[in-house]
Design a protein that fits this description.
The chain has about 110 residues and is an all-alpha fold. It contains four helices and no strands. This is Multidrug efflux SMR transporter.
């Protein structure tokens, strides 16, 4: 259950990162509100998940999922550049998160 919370929190982290960009330094109201809501949900779920997980792997998974998700949304929906190196690097981030999860961390 705690790992599911981390995955959902990572999705909301992706949301708050993308909306932060779209808020244009908090000058656009709706993206700013969306950013704040996503950030609160993401941090809340992370906090809840940390009750049953070790902080290192949980935080690494949360940030890794948020990083990968944000990069994918940027490339797929925001017109950011995609390259073989960028995609391979994202694969390494995901592999690192999976490796930490398989390293014996339990919840």
């Amino acid at each position: 259950m705690a790992w599911l919370l981390i995955v959902i929190a990572g999705i909301f982290e992706t949301g708050f990162a993308v909306l932060l960009k779209q808020s244009e330094t908090f000058t656009k109201p709706w993206p700013t509100v969306g950013f704040a809501v996503c950030a609160l949900i993401s941090f809340g779920l992370l906090t809840w998940a940390l009750r049953g997980l070790e902080v290192g792997p949980a935080y690494a998974a949360w940030t890794g999922l948020g990083t990968a998700g944000t990069a994918v949304v940027g490339m797929a929906a925001l017109g950011e550049s995609a390259s073989v190196l960028k995609l391979a690097s994202l694969g390494l981030v995901v592999a690192g998160v999976i490796g930490l999860n398989l390293s014996g961390v339990t919840a």
